[in-house]
């Protein structure tokens, strides 16, 4: 049976991230898209009990495309190429569920986090809609290989970009870009964007309020920290006292995509244009906003 819109199968795995840079950096801004990767290793697909389309339920599909205007406004866009179902860059490096593995896990593994309990650790047990991914248990060596090949290069590069930005501008604003599903969370039908700053700990009130205003001026309905207050990237890198602020953005998928078919919908171009306008204004104001 043909599966509509399967993920691309690749014989040789691509680099774990793409980095899109401006010709000249003019804004202390980094945009990240850790969940838009769609390069599924064939051996991963073969080991899964799910068909390719259902594996893609965990993706923030097309989010990297929505924020593609960032380099044109002097900012950097860092996007994972590996899928979230394979390795999740928005988790600690070693959040692993012992029940997924046939052998024991090292002592340094965090096996008791709420993400692990939900099946959504660094190597997820389930896709975002709750279906188990694997036919059989894995070995720890497989998780270690994925984390070393995917998670570590992504975060090594992001750490370097944050340091580069602080070195050039004295400050850094990190916008971590995600999408949220239409179903499953009460009250979100009236919300277009959820901003997460870990309840005011990863960005200053002024920064989060300005981002909320900019998005609201585009006609988007914005909520803060409910139900998404920010994941590992926001909480790990967002340290206002050290000159680095971080805000997570969750865009409603119904604005731009057909979730069932995993396709761009009629609203995609308008949403991308709105995001580009947001990026342009934030880039112009970022240096002053972070002072």
Structural descriptors:
9 strands, 291 residues, two-stranded antiparallel ribbon, seven-stranded mixed beta sheet, Aminopeptidase, alpha/beta
Task: Describe the fold and architecture.
With 291 residues, the protein is α/β, with parallel strands linked by helices. It has a single domain, classed as Aminopeptidase (3-Layer(aba) Sandwich). The chain has eight helices and nine strands. The protein has a seven-stranded mixed sheet with strand order 1-3-2-4-7-5-6, with helices on both faces. Strands 8-9 form a two-stranded antiparallel ribbon. Helix 6 links the parallel strand 5 (193-196) and strand 6. The mean pLDDT is 94.
Overall radius of gyration: 18 Å
The proportion of strand residues reads 5-15%
Derived from helix and strand composition plus strand pairing, the structural class reads alpha/beta
What's the architecture in CATH terms?
A: 3-Layer(aba) Sandwich
Overall structural domain count = 1
**Total beta strands:** 9
- Mean of pLDDT: 94
Taken in chain order, the helices and strands follow as EEHHHEHHEEHEHEEEH
Distance between the termini: 57 Å
**Highest-level CATH class:** Alpha Beta
CATH topology heading: Aminopeptidase
Shape: globular
Q: Spans of 5+ residues with little confidence (pLDDT < 50)?
A: none
Largest sheet: 7 strands, mixed
Strand order of the largest sheet: 1-3-2-4-7-5-6
What's the CATH H-level homologous superfamily? Answer: Zn-dependent exopeptidases
User: How much helical structure, as a percent, in the residues?
Assistant: 25-40%
């Amino acid at each position: 049976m043909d599966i509509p819109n399967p993920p691309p199968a690749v014989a040789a795995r691509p680099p774990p991230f793409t980095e899109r840079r401006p010709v000249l950096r003019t804004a202390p801004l980094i945009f990240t898209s850790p969940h838009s990767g769609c390069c599924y290793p064939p051996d991963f697909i073969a080991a899964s009990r799910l068909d390719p389309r259902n594996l893609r339920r965990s993706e923030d599909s097309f989010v990297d495309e929505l924020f593609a205007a960032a380099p044109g406004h002097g900012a950097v866009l860092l996007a994972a190429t590996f899928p979230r179902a394979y390795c999740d860059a928005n988790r600690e490096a070693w959040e692993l569920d012992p029940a997924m593995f046939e052998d024991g896990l090292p002592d340094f593994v965090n096996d008791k986090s709420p993400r692990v309990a939900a099946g959504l650790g660094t190597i997820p047990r389930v896709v975002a809609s709750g279906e188990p991914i694997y036919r059989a248990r894995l070995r720890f060596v497989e998780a270690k290989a994925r984390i070393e090949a995917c998670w570590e290069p992504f975060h090594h590069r992001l750490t370097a970009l944050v340091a580069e930005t602080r070195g050039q501008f004295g400050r850094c604003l990190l916008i971590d870009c995600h999408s949220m599903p239409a179903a499953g969370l009460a009250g979100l039908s009236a919300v277009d964007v959820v901003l997460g700053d870990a309840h005011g700990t990863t960005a200053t009130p002024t920064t989060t309020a300005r981002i909320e205003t900019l998005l609201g001026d585009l006609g988007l309905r914005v909520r803060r920290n409910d139900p998404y207050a920010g994941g590992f990237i926001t909480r790990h890198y967002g340290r206002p006292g050290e000159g680095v602020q971080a805000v997570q953005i969750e865009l409603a998928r119904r604005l731009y995509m057909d979730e069932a078919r995993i396709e761009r919908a009629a609203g995609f171009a308008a949403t991308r244009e709105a995001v580009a306008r947001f990026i342009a204004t934030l880039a112009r104001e970022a240096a002053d906003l972070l002072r």
